[in-house]
């Protein structure tokens, strides 16, 4: 793990001009492969009446059976000084399967990337949207980032409620 | 919540062109819209406007005081996705201007940031996170005033980073330190290190200092921090000392003290319940020579702690709300004469206990109205208890 991190550090120096979008896309693919393991899937952008400017929605379907595996929102929010990118994977029944922070840029508030903290969102459904800010316990010292991601996910839950799929 | 606003929006606001732009079925104002775009400039800030009044005792009348305690304006600029600059301009009591932070942050790797400039010393909770809506009580805990001289910032450089999957955050910096002598002695028995802050203004540098903070947040609802600081204070007496001038060097050596500080802190949040605690121990080496030279009464060790618990009363309401009404109580004890050395005898009045009870009403995540009652007492025989009431408005955006 440590060795790998060091090599990533070294490589990232060489790849300084690496495109941001490609980097983000790679992260998204990694999360999807992990979430839908052993499945070959297709990711298709969906036209959605979204509530956040930077949000993109994707439908995930199994390649062979065309079965709906889930819906994904890729979004960003602002922490203390800078924006961060994250994604929400929804089950076909519109409950949250998993939330992952993809790129966190600033030094402050990086705690929200913690798996344990993000687990709080799992299983939430559009019905939970109204109470979401009360249900999610913030992290001391990462208040702004916690609030920001919670509010964005709240909006996504409202958005997905209206998606007919 | 956070404001990333371009210069364009500023000029829009000035010209009054505050328009509403429809987006789907929601209305978003133009500021919100631009916040979501990739802007390079971040604006933000926080402020505290307080009222303090010591309650009358023995029939003596005591005036209260209204004060714009501090207003802090934050500006950040993003040069690239990895390189940014952050600065906070602080105005205290309307007339004192300071720079609270001014540093560059270079993201070398997901888990490694390089920082250089004027930075906050990561000792305990409040020195790093002192925005008024993040803590209860109009006034900050006093161990974060006298033992950790909040807002303690120094010029230096180092590394920081967060590894979220294992719940770990670290900060390690080499910095300039507090001053113990700048034409006069600046440390004292009663206020500890408080007057030693150089605030990054034409500082004296004679000894390098180092600080390290480790945080663990891998357990849910809980955050544990451990900070360490080691070094020596700075003194102007080192200027132009020759190698052979033993007497002068000894004099300069007596004008500095060795500092070793350790802080352990814990924060817990679960639904409407919140609690926090902090313990500080500071060792001051060479205090007897320092006192002998300047006639001061600096202790050889300081110790303090506080524990605080609060509960959001609005949780009792059936209806869901974003507002919070937190009732809290904080118990604090600190002793700037925890240990003394040499001729010095302990001053019992420096062993202080404070109990703060009050309410924090969060109208929004960024706005808090505060009211509390404080009791101050010390261990000196025959000393009286002082009572104080405080009201405050705190904002953070």
Strand residue content of chain B: over 45%
Query: What name is given to the CATH topology of chain B?
Result: Porin
Mean pLDDT of chain B: 89
Q: What value does the Rg of chain A take, in angstroms?
A: 16 Å
CATH architecture of chain B: Beta Barrel
Topology:
The complex is a heterodimer of chains A (165) and B (397).
Chain A: H1 2-14, H2 20-35, E1 41-46, E2 56-62, E3 68-78, E4 83-90, E5 96-104, H3 115-118, H4 132-135, H5 143-161
Antiparallel strand pairs in A: 1-2, 2-3, 3-4, 4-5
Chain B: H1 7-14, E1 20-23, E2 26-29, H2 30-35, E3 41-54, E4 64-78, E5 83-92, E6 96-109, E7 112-120, H3 143-147, E8 153-163, E9 168-175, E10 179-181, E11 209-216, E12 222-232, E13 234-235, H4 246-254, E14 258-270, E15 273-285, H5 287-294, E16 301-312, E17 324-339, E18 351-364, E19 367-378, E20 386-396
Parallel strand pairs in B: 10-13
Antiparallel strand pairs in B: 1-2, 3-4, 3-20, 4-5, 5-6, 6-7, 7-8, 8-9, 9-11, 11-12, 12-14, 14-15, 15-16, 16-17, 17-18, 18-19, 19-20
Model description:
The complex is a heterodimer of chains A (165) and B (397). With 165 residues, chain A is α+β, with helices and mostly antiparallel strands. Chain A has one domain. Chain A is 34% helix and 25% strand. Chain A is built from 5 helices and 5 strands; from the N terminus they run H-H-E-E-E-E-E-H-H-H. Chain A has a 5-stranded antiparallel β-sheet. In chain A, a hairpin with a 5-residue loop joins strand 2 and strand 3 (68-78). The longest helix of chain A has 19 residues, at 143-161. The N and C termini of chain B lie close together (7 Å). Chain B contains 5 helices and 20 strands. Chain B has 397 residues and is mainly beta. Chain B has a single domain (40-396), classed as Porin (Beta Barrel), CATH 2.40.160.10. Chains A and B meet through helix 1, helix 3 and helix 5 of A and strand 4, strand 6, strand 7, strand 8 and strand 14 of B.
């Amino acid at each position: 793990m440590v060795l790998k991190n060091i090599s990533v550090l070294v490589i990232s120096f060489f790849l300084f001009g690496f495109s941001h979008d490609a980097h983000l896309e790679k992260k998204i693919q990694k999360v999807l492969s992990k979430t839908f393991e052993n499945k070959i899937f297709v990711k298709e952008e969906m036209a959605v009446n979204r509530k956040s400017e930077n949000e993109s929605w994707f439908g995930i379907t199994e390649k062979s059976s065309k079965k709906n595996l889930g819906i994904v929102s890729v979004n960003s929010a602002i922490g203390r000084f800078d924006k961060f990118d994250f994604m929400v994977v929804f089950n076909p029944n519109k409950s949250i399967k998993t939330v992952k922070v993809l790129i966190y840029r600033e030094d402050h508030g990086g705690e929200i990337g913690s798996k344990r903290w993000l687990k709080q969102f799992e299983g939430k459904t559009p019905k939970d949207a109204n109470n979401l800010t009360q249900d999610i316990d913030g992290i001391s010292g990462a208040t702004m980032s916690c609030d920001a991601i919670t509010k964005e996910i709240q909006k996504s839950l409202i958005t997905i409620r209206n998606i007919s799929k | 919540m956070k404001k990333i606003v371009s210069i364009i929006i500023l000029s829009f606001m000035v010209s009054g062109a505050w328009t509403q732009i429809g987006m789907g079925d929601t209305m978003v104002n133009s500021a919100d819209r631009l916040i979501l775009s990739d802007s390079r400039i971040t604006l933000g800030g926080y402020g505290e406007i307080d009222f303090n009044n010591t309650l009358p005792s023995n029939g003596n009348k005591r005036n209260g005081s209204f004060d714009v305690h501090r207003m802090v304006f934050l500006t950040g600029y993003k040069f690239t996705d990895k390189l940014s600059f952050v600065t906070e301009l602080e105005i205290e009591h309307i007339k004192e201007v300071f720079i609270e932070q001014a540093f560059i942050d270079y993201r070398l790797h997901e888990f490694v940031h390089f920082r250089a400039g004027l930075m906050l010393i990561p000792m305990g909770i409040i020195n790093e996170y002192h925005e008024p809506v993040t803590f209860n009580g109009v006034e900050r805990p006093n161990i974060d005033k006298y033992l950790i001289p909040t807002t303690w910032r120094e010029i230096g450089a180092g590394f920081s980073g967060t590894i979220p999957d294992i719940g770990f955050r670290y900060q390690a910096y080499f910095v300039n330190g507090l001053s113990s002598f700048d034409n006069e002695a600046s440390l004292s028995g009663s206020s500890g290190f408080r007057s030693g802050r150089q605030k990054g203004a034409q500082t004296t540098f004679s000894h390098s200092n180092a600080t390290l903070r480790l945080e663990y947040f891998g357990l849910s609802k809980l955050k544990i921090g451990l900070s360490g600081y080691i070094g020596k204070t700075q003194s102007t007496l080192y200027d132009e000392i020759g190698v052979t001038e033993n007497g002068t060097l000894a004099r300069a050596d007596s004008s500095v003290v060795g500092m070793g500080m350790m802080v352990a802190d814990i924060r817990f949040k679960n639904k409407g319940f919140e609690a926090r605690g902090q313990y500080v121990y500071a060792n001051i080496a060479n205090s007897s020579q320092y006192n002998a030279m300047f006639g001061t009464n600096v202790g050889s060790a300081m110790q303090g702690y506080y524990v605080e618990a609060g509960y959001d009363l609005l949780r009792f309401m059936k209806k869901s709300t974003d507002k919070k009404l937190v009732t809290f109580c904080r118990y604090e004890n600190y002793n700037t004469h925890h240990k003394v050395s040499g001729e010095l005898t302990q001053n019992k009045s420096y062993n202080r206990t404070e109990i703060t009870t009050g309410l924090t009403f969060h109208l929004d995540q960024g706005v808090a109205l505060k009211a509390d009652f404080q009791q101050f007492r010390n261990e000196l025989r025959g000393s009286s208890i002082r009572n104080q009431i405080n009201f405050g408005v705190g904002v953070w955006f």
